[in-house]
Amino acid sequence: MTDPIPGFSKLTKEEKIEWLSNTYLANNPEAKNILQQYWNPNANLQQLHEEFTENTLSNYYLPFGLAPNFLINNELYAIPMATEESSVIAAASKAAKFWGKRGGFKAEVLGTQKIGQVHFMYQGDKSKLPDFFLHVKPRLLETVAPLTKNMEKRGGGVINLELRDKTTLLGDYFQLHCTFETKDSMGANFINSCLERFAETFKAEAAVYENFSASEKDIEIVMSILSNYVPDCIVRAEVSCDVKELADHEMSGEDFAAKFVRALKIAEAEPYRAVTHNKGIMNGIDAVVLSTGNDFRAVEAGIHAYASKDGKYTSLSHADVRNGKFRFWMEIPLALGTVGGLTGLHPLSRIALEILQKPSAPDLMKIVAAAGLAQNFAAVRSLITTGIQQGHMKMHLMNILNQLNATPQEKEVLVKHFKVHNVSHSAVEEQLEKLRS
Ligand code: MEV
């Protein structure tokens, strides 16, 4: 057991690493070097990264790659993806190529509204609250005017403000349920600032409201926070083609379509499969969300909640065949920004948005949804034809070779060898041993 360290955050980066090396990494003489090796030689860039968060010791790299040839609403995009998972970018590119020849992705934003709530407790006469709310509502909107001024110029702001009685869920629990439009910003700071201002004013006005008794005047504000559940900030992405155009791996188009739809029905019916199916979608979504400096935790939380909006966790995507036409689509909630937050601050996010031709937030929603659907198509296509391991292990080969410390020459020989042989950890090990002997 080590003793707690007081004032760790006050230490310099070097002192923090020194303490860490002595305390938790004493048996690893390389640890300090490894941490330092990831410092950027450009001091300004390093400082920028250190200031993104606290107690920074080093930088944690992820590959930043590109999936080109994405035809979305008749525009060709190259999509930047940050991911560590082998085969994700290859799969996205392959699916993009496949659908590029069949009309591409059609994507449409169905809504852009976001929600925030002031959660409060009120123990008085319930019938007095709606009147108080009507009385205080203009004042609430007035107090956020300085915060909403700029957002309103961009066409956003507070869209709606409601009082909600939640006492059937929890005794004395009420909400101010607020709807926001935040245009090209994800809007978390804007929403939270508005909510905190609402809460302050709401409490202060209650304290002097003449129809409240002394105890009723004492409303308890529990918290004010945006919701990452955004079922009205929705994008739909779809691909479609004649069934005949789906012939694949010695399967007729009809058989492929039928098996694909069946695989989707399984994901709709069975939560164990749905989670993995949706994880495949998130492989594409997270990679673009991350590359563009957006909040992938918010996106993950919101999307998975949406996947269980009808009371049971289910597939986010769906497929059908009608009149000889195959359709594959999904609708997902996505709260994204293309201004503010990390988007303009992280040099690679800036580049990612430039690669995407500086999209608006709704445009980015369409691109991200297309990437998710492409990823899902690629995964299910593999699953119902060759199986996932063939493609995955091919892409994973380099990781195995690196684990086994293969030299560049050895890698070259073995990559060639495994172009025509099945990859498995033991097969690679065996071939490498053979080569070395
Ligand atoms: C692996 O990262 C993702 C898949 O499991 C998705 C799926 O099963 O649909 C291949």
From TrEMBL:
Alphabetical UniProt keywords: NAD, Oxidoreductase
GO molecular function, one term: hydroxymethylglutaryl-CoA reductase (NADH) activity
GO biological process, one term: coenzyme A metabolic process
Known EC number: 1.1.1.88
Recorded metabolic or biological pathway in which this protein acts: Metabolic intermediate metabolism; (R)-mevalonate degradation; (S)-3-hydroxy-3-methylglutaryl-CoA from (R)-mevalonate: step 1/1
Superkingdom, natural source: Bacteria
Catalysed transformations (reactions): (R)-mevalonate + 2 NAD(+) + CoA = (3S)-3-hydroxy-3-methylglutaryl-CoA + 2 NADH + 2 H(+)
Family the UniProt entry places it in: Belongs to the HMG-CoA reductase family.
Protein's name in the database: 3-hydroxy-3-methylglutaryl coenzyme A reductase
Protein source organism: Salinimicrobium sediminis
